[in-house]
Amino acid sequence: MNHLHFVDGDGSFTLSKPENVSYLYFPLASETGMKSSVTPNLGGDAKLDQETFLLEPVSAENLHNNRSVRNFWLAGPEGEVFSAAGASAGQEAARFTPAQDDSAVTAGLMWHTLERDWQAMGLHTAVTTFCPRRDRVEIMLVCVHNRSDQPRRVTPTAAIPIYGRSADNIRDHRNVTSMLHRIWTGDNGVMVRPTMSFDERGHRPNHKIYYVWGCGPDGQKPEGFYPTVEDFLGEGGTYLHPRAVLEGRPGAAAGCTAEGREAMGAFRFPAVTLAPGQKAEYVLLLGVEDSEADIAAVWEKYGGPEKALDALESTRADWLEKVNVRFATGDADFDCLMRWVCFQPFLRRLFGCSFLPHHDYGRGGRGWRDLWQDCLSLLLMDPGGVGRMIEKNFGGVRIDGTNATIIGDGDGNFIADRNGIARVWMDHALWPQMTVKLYIDQTGDVAILNRQAPYFKDAQAMRGTRIDPEHRPEQGCWQRTAGGEVYAGTILEHLLIQQLAAFYEVGRHNIYRLRGADWNDALDMAAAQGESVAFTCAYAGNLRELAGMIRLLQRSTGAASARILEEALVLLNDQPEVLDQVEAKHRVLEQYAGACSHTISGRQVEVRLEDLAASLEKKASWLTAWLQGHEWIDAGDGQGWYNSYYDDHGRAVEGIFPTGVRMMLTGQVFAIMGGVATDAQVGQITRSADRYLYRREIGGYRLNTDFHELKFDLGRMFGFAYGEKENGAVFSHMAVMYANALYRRGFVQEGWKALKSLADTALDFDTSRIYPGIPEYFRADGRGMYHYLTGAASWYMMTMITQVFGVRGEAGDLLLEPKLTAGQFDEKGRAMVSVTFAGRRLTVCYENPERLDYGSYRIGAAACDGAELCAGSSSSLLIPRAIVEALPAAPEHRITVTLC
After folding, report:
1. Residues ≥6 apart with Cβ < 8 Å to 61
2. Which is it for strands 893-899 and 840-847: parallel, antiparallel or unpaired?
3. Counting CB atoms within 10 angstroms of each CB, which of 604, 624, 680, 690 has the fewest?
4. Which residues pair with 813 in a beta bridge?
5. Are β-strands 488-490 and 452-454 bridged in parallel, bridged antiparallel, or unpaired?
6. Radius of gyration of the chain from Cα atoms?
7. Largest CA distance in the chain
8. If residue 882 lies in a helix (H) or strand (E), which one and from where to where?
9. Is the pLDDT of residue 1 over 60?
10. Could you tell me the CA-to-CA distances from 366 to 240, 394, 409, 516, 723 in Å, in that order?
11. Neighbouring-strand partners of residue 406
């Protein structure tokens, strides 16, 4: 197999004969809605949303089934034909033979170039595809280069099928909806406006126009059009063998129309004769607009080779600037991989969790976890405006501590679920607090805890177990008081309600109930008796952390108290008889949720911050002791781990069973991260994980061992083949969180092992068979699956910056606490990371001239732009924020830290 190679320090890469690898696809998008995927033969799709697909929607299996790709044909004078996409009958037949085309994909952040040689004619084609950031258009820039020593005459034809409707119509009236098409051609291309959006639940008039326009050298216009699929293919023709190209059919003139047929953005350009060494460039624009005037405005910006080239360079520069985190270690390929990992959170913001070939589910948008975890990366790359984003996101929290699950466009836009009892994910209260903690550390803005936000309200009540019979849609989506006013509480109050309401919702083992699922969506069949030990550990850590944030608020602002909703006071109960007794906890939760099921009083009471913090710490200590006393599994021989779950029969799911060892990674991650596991237990957990879960050749730590059971009293994951998705795959997100937890606790070598195993497998193209980046998971044979749109990327980037390089905020100040291993320094003993902090661009360079390993070095000296910051010896360095903010607004400042 031809290996993938990086070609520059920005992560751009090249791969020869990419069509010989299955399931490859590359994401392209604008920031105004265009979302595309492109394959090595220019397949994939393009869309704005679920209802507005420009190109036919594709799933992973379509990538090798479909031939209706973005094609650009060249026809020679003797009837010979060539596809720049490699999608012709002759080129397909030659694949895997000596006659196969020489081809290569070269790509970088938001641009993709496919090069291909027509050996018989000595012609070379390059098709570069990209989406300008600020327009809803995909641009194809086609260059035909005569590399022979003879003049070559060819007739170019662009051929792009226009789907032009909702993804739902793939299996819902596909043929009928083609009858809605109204197709016409102009001087520059083909346009389609369906008369309506077809939906038997309620048809809607359509005003959107789907189009493919193009031009050649010097603005040359198409000379003939094939506006329908039938016109282009001809009777009996196929996309690999279209009669319009093979037979040189002239096509219709500009101004022709068609109705009720599948549309085709196909047109031929005048024949061109290329002298030896001469090039001809063509531009194709694919897009969706609301009017011909809007299309013309887009065409004015990009409709010509020079304009398109300028846009390409601008797009490249924009994305290189936006992805502003860089690493320099002893491994150049790893550093390039990290460019893509740092780019992936942007893709998640643009695509949501849908709209790439493996992500063939959902209807776009992001989930609750995504809102918060994507903020993690923004805080490290582009923190401006994140505070306001966080405040708006808290408007999705219900007064009972649950949250909205249908999230609209923009920040703070949440939609009521009117389809009955909503599913409740028990982990959802965890992520907002993690994000707020990082925000406060990175910015020092602890006052965000005092800012106000409303609460979401819909028909769901009693933590999603009942319907509020008094709620009416016309009452809106905000929690109201008995007097009808929209109620707002502080961000601190929101956090308290989220953490404390969850504390009382326990199962019969006094562990937080699993409900609809936790982070692992596939644990969805234990709603009655299931309990999540894993996330009970996580919440123990959250309670302790929230207490610390409250004490910081007290120190920073001098405040002694906070105003809290009167009904919430019951949640501060710390009596031992309540903490130890399941039924007592249920009564507390019933009292609180019942009082808030429709309206609330709106009355607030003053509570001492010291009392709030003490109550949280007491609950955290109780949880820690309970978990240590009830959930630890001693496997002997220096090994052990925490049980992660109880199933719907109330049975612990982990331990040593007759069918073998049952161990899950999730419980270990949060026992470590939440401070439940002792240091000695962490050591036992890592030894157990290495023995039972680790497989270096497929990415590292699997999510679980093989239970050898269709365990349908816990979740659908056990219906998957072992090694697929949540059932025993190397799930990148949890593996990265495992690494993060280990680093936090000082287990650096073990944490780096987890991170490096993921990176090594991603970079091993023979195994992973993916373009650079971190996929959602590596399956049983090591192939990367569900690429790009994973929260693992944000966590990987955050762990590398804040833990491995130890560059992070601490209550707004800059902390440097490196945890680099000897092998992460380059040949000169240096390791660098470039980040933005306090509005300044910083490159932190650690110099380790003796190549000491972690644990053997300390910070001996530090300087910023040559000015001394400190001298002496310590494990970390805290730089006051004021010093960073006082630095001049230069492009970059260099902090050099000498380790000794």
Report:
1. none
2. parallel
3. 680
4. 810
5. antiparallel
6. 29
7. 93
8. helix 881-885
9. no
10. 37, 15, 9, 18, 26
11. 415
| Contact criterion met (CB below 8 Å) for 319 and 3 | no
3-state secondary structure of 14: strand
**What are the phi and psi torsion angles at 756 (to 5°)?**
-65, -35
The residue type found at 50 is Q
Q: Which amino acid is at 809?
A: G
How far apart are alpha carbons 620 and 613 in whole angstroms? 11
Let me know: does 897 contact 859? Beta carbons within 8 Å.
Answer: yes
Q: How far apart, in whole angstroms, are the C-alpha atoms of residue 746 and residue 400?
A: 37
Kindly state the average pLDDT of the residues 424-429: 96
Q: Is the pLDDT of residue 303 over 60?
A: yes
Pairing verdict, β 52-53 and 639-642: unpaired
CB-neighbour burial class of residue 167 (10 A; exposed 0-12, middle 13-18, buried 19+): buried
Residue 2, pLDDT > 60, answer no
What is the rounded CA–CA span in Å between residue 342 and residue 15? 21
CA distance 824 to 752: 10
Question: Which whole-number Å values give the CA distances from 437 to 367, 543, 552, 674, in the listed order?
Answer: 20, 12, 11, 14
Which string of b and e fits 523-542 if b means at least 16 CB within 10 Å? bbbbeebbbbbbbbbbbbbb
Task: Give the predicted TM-score (pTM) of the model.
Answer: 0.97
How many whole angstroms separate alpha carbon 559 and alpha carbon 460? 35
CB 734 within 8 A of CB 669: yes
Task: Judge whether 798 and 342 are in contact, CB under 8 Å.
Answer: no
When pLDDT is cut at 50, 70 and 90, the band that residue 420 belongs to is low
Assess contact for 801 and 378: CB atoms under 8 A. Answer: no
Residue 812: both structure tokens together: 């707004």
How far, in Å, CA of 746 to CA of 743, rounded? 5
The whole-angstrom separation of Cα 721 and Cα 725 is 9
- Determine the Cα–Cα distance for residues 198 and 490; give it in Å rounded to an integer: 45
- Collapse the DSSP code of 39 into the 3-class scheme (helix H, G, I; strand E, B; otherwise coil) and give the result: coil
Question: 456 near 404, Cβ under 8 Å?
Answer: yes
229 C-beta neighbours (distance < 10 Å), count: 20
> Measured in Å, how far apart are the chain's first and last C-alpha atoms?
44
- Angle, helices 332-351/792-799, rounded to nearest 10 degrees: 140
CA distances, 302 to each of 143, 214, 308 (Å): 16, 10, 5
| Percent of the chain topping pLDDT 90 | 92
Both structure tokens of 77: 């004078």
On average, the pLDDT of the chain sits at 96
Strand partners, 228: 263
Q: How sure is the predictor about 198, in pLDDT bands with cuts at 50, 70 and 90?
A: confident
And the tokens for 496? 């308290």
Distance between CA 285 and CA 140 in Å, rounded? 6
Helix (H, G, I), strand (E, B) or coil at 156: strand
Calculate mean pLDDT across residues 443-461: 97
Q: CA-CA distance, 265 to 111, in Å (whole number)?
A: 22
Phi/psi of residue 51, nearest 5 degrees: -90, -10
The pLDDT-based confidence of 374 (bands split at 50, 70, 90) is: confident
**SS3 of 395-450:** HHEECCCCECCEECCCCCCEECCCCCCCCCECCCCHHHHHHHHHHHHHHCCHHHHH
Instruction: Work out the burial of residue 23: count CB atoms within 10 Å of its CB; fewer than 13 is exposed, 13-18 middle, 19 or more buried.
Output: middle
Residue type, 411: D
- pLDDT at position 299: 98
Please state, in angstroms and rounded to a whole number, the distance separating the CA atoms of residues 361 and 895.
46
What are the residues whose beta carbons fall under 8 Å from the beta carbon of 401, sequence distance 6 or more? 429, 463, 497, 498, 499, 500, 501, 502
* Tokens 């690494």, located at residue: 739
Tell me the CA distances in angstroms from 111 to 105, 131, 133, 318, 414, one per residue in order: 11, 8, 11, 12, 33
Closest CA to 82 of 142, 123, 114: 123
Contact status, residue 636 vs residue 661, Cβ threshold 8 Å: no
Strand 414-415 relative to strand 466-467, pairing = unpaired
